[in-house]
Amino acid sequence: MTQPAPQPSTAVDSPAAPPDLPADAETAEETAVSGWPAKAWNWACHRLNPDPELDPDNRFEFTKVELVERLKTDDPDIAQEILAEAEQIAERMVDGRAESVERRAATLQSATAIAGSFSSAGGTLLVTRINGRPWQVVIGLLLLWVTGSLGLCGWRATQASSKIHPWSVLPSTAILTRASQTIPESRIERAVQVLRAAGWNARYARYKVTMLERAGEHLTRASLGLPVLIAAVAIYALRH
Questions:
Q1: Mean pLDDT (10-residue bins), the chain, 240 residues
Q2: Collapsing DSSP states into helix, strand and coil, what is residue 129?
Q3: Which of 3, 100, 205, 215 could form a disulfide with 157 if both were Cys (CB 3.0 to 4.6 A apart)?
Q4: Which parts of the chain span the membrane according to its record (predicted)?
Q5: How many CB atoms neighbour CB 132 within 10 A?
Q6: So what's the pLDDT on residue 178?
C-alpha cells in the first residue's frame, strides 16, 4: 500500500517542527552526559551559571496581535493613559528592579578583592607561622571557607550586575510607521512594544534578583566563618 506524498506546508515564517522521537529514543544531549564526569561538569556549570527562570509575575505573555486587540481604542486620551500605564508597569517589572539590583551588586563586587588579599595573607600565615599538621588543617579549612564564600559572593554579584542575556529593546525602526498611523494606533502600538519587551525581560530581571540573593547568602557564610577563623588563630597563639 503506497502512502500519499506529503503536502507542502503553507505556514509562513514558522520554524520547522522537530521530528517525533520514539519513547525509548536517546537524544544527543543525553548521550553526551552519560558519564559521571560529564554529568558532574554540567551540574557545576549549571550551579555557577543557572538558566533564567520564567517570572511568575509576568502577565504579558501574549502575541502582538493579542495585545493590540486587548488594548485597542479610538480615543487618543485613553490611548495615552494606556501608554503611560504600560511604561509604569515596565519600570516596576524590569527597569526599576534591574537598576536597584545593579547598584547593590556593585558594592558586593569588592568581596572578590577582599578574598584575594585575605587568601594571600592567610596563605602566608599558614606557611610561616602555623606549626603542626592538625592546626594547619583546621585553619586552612576555615581560611578556604571564608575566602571561597567571599569569592562566590563576588561572582554572584558580578552576574547580578552584568547583562549577559539577550534583553529585548524597543525596535528603533518603528518610528518609520508613525506618520501613517492615527494617534491612538501609534500610542497603542508603542504600549504593546513596551509590554512585550517587559514580558521578555522580566525573567532576566528576576535572574538578577536571584543572583543578588545568592551573593548575600555567600557573604553571610563568610561572615559566620570569619569569627571562627579568628578564634582558631587566637587559640593557637595562646597555646603556642
A1: 44 36 36 57 64 64 82 91 91 87 86 75 77 87 89 88 81 79 90 88 88 91 89 87
A2: coil
A3: 215
A4: 135-155, 218-238
A5: 11
A6: 78
Nearest-angstrom CA–CA distance, 80 and 77: 5
Question: DSSP states of 12-78 as a string?
Answer: SS-PPPPPP--TT---HHHHHT-SHHHHHHHHHHHHHSPPPPPPTT------HHHHHHHH--S-HHH
Report the Cα 164 to chain-centroid distance in Å: 8
Q: 180: which residues sit within 8 A by CB, 6+ positions away?
A: none
Q: Which three cell numbers stand for residue 124?
A: 602566608
pLDDT score recorded for residue 14 = 34
Task: Report helix, strand or coil for 111.
Answer: helix
The total of structural domains in the chain comes to 1
Look at residue 224 in the predicted model and tell me its pLDDT.
Answer: 92
Structural domain contains residue 31: no
In a domain, 19, yes or no: no
**Domain membership of residue 214 as a residue range:** 62-239
Sequence-distant contacts of 121-129: CB under 8 A, at least 24 apart: 122/147, 125/233
Number of H helices, E strands in the chain: 8, 0
Residue 25 included in any domain: no
List % helix, strand, coil for the chain (3-state, nearest 5). 70, 0, 30
Residue 191 near residue 139, CB atoms below 8 Å: no
At 15, list the grid cell: 520554524
Sign, CA torsion 191/193/196/200: negative
What cell was used for 104?
A: 547593590
At 17 the pLDDT is 34
